[in-house]
Amino acid sequence: MKAIITLFATPPNPVTGKPILLYCAAGVLPPVDAVAREYEAEFGVTVQIQPGGSGTLLNNLQVARRGDLYLAADDDYMTIGRDKGLIQEVIPLARMHPVIAVRSGNPRGIRSVEDLIAGDHRISAANPGAAAVGRLVREALEKSGQWKRLEARVKVFKPTVN
Question: Which of 56, 97, 101, 118 lies at a CB distance of 3.0 to 4.6 Å from 52, suitable for a disulfide?
């Protein structure tokens, strides 16, 4: 899964001083926000960040028909965006990997998806319809035959990886 930054057909012009609108996958928000603040300090241009799940952000972009950059968590969204005429250029930026996040110290000893499914755990997961990582997790667990069991145990599906 790659984080992809996309340049739209009308790139921002730092000379005009107009804000840059960046649709940003929530999973990469902290480092992107830090870079955006540095950019603002150096060039005097405000960067407005709209965080969310990659699929949700692409839908927002399609409806709003405005924005300067789209940073998705998976390159499949770039294909969709290009097919819809929303994206001009794609530049690979980073890689993300799905993980199981547990309480500090891992007191329940969860080391695998099977441990997670088999135990009496409260599970929260990224929504496969809204976040790239949710879709990739679903695809991988469907192949291993674990998706239906995990899905049945999830207490809440969240729109972002965070």
Answer: 56
Tokens for 157, please give them: 């599906």
Tokens 């928000």 map to which residue?
29
| Residues 2, 105: Cα–Cα separation, whole Å | 29
- The pTM of the full predicted model, rounded to 2 decimals, is 0.67
Angle between helices 54-64 and 132-144 (to 10 degrees): 140
Q: Where on the phi/psi map is residue 65: left (φ > 0), alpha (ψ -120 to 50), or beta?
A: left
Rounded CA separation 82/62 (Å): 11
Residue range 90-120, pLDDT digits in tens: 888 877 778 888 999 999 999 999 999 987 8
Token pair in block for residue 85: 């005429």
Instruction: Give the pair of three-digit tokens for residue 136.
Output: 């990739």
Reported as half-sphere exposure (CB side, CA atoms, 13 A), residue 93 has a value of 21
